[in-house]
Amino acid sequence: MSLRHFIAVCVFSAVAVAGCTIEIHYPGEGISKQAMSDVIDGDAPVENLPPVIFEIVEVSPSEGVVEGGTAVTVAGNILQNAQQVLFDGVAGHDLVSLGPKGIRVHAPAGSPGPVDVTVVRQDGKTVTLTDGFRYIVDLQLESVEPPTGNVQG
Question: With 151 labelled, which of 5, 62, 80, 138 sits at a CA distance of 20 to 30 A?
Fold first, then answer.
C-alpha cells in the first residue's frame, strides 16, 4: 500500500473535535485533495482517496455570441499552468489563471452551435470538454412595422 503524508485542518467545538479535513498534497501537482476523517496526524493510504486528475468540470457561462468576446470561466482541476483555452481549435484571448481550479478567458468569434473547449497546459497536456460552449446569434431588431403609432397603443 502506498502512503503519502498529510496535513490536517480540524474543526473544534467547545466539547470535542467536530471533524477533520485531510489534505493530501500530490508532488508536482500543486493542489490537494480533501477527505473527511477523524485522523488528526499521520499518513493516509492513497487508495482511500479519489485521485486528482487534469479535467474541465464546467464552462460558465456555457454560451456566448458568435462575434466573440464573452468572458468565460473554465472550472476544473490542475489548471494552474494553462497556456491556452481553445474553442473548437481557436484560441481565446486575455487568459487569466485563477489558480489550480480555474481560468478566465474571452471566447473568440465562432459559428453558431456547440463547440469543444480544450485547455492546453505549458507541459503540452490537453483536456477537452465536448460541447462545452455554445455560440448563439445575438438577436437584432431590423425594423418596426408600422414605423409610427399612437402613444396610447
Answer: 138
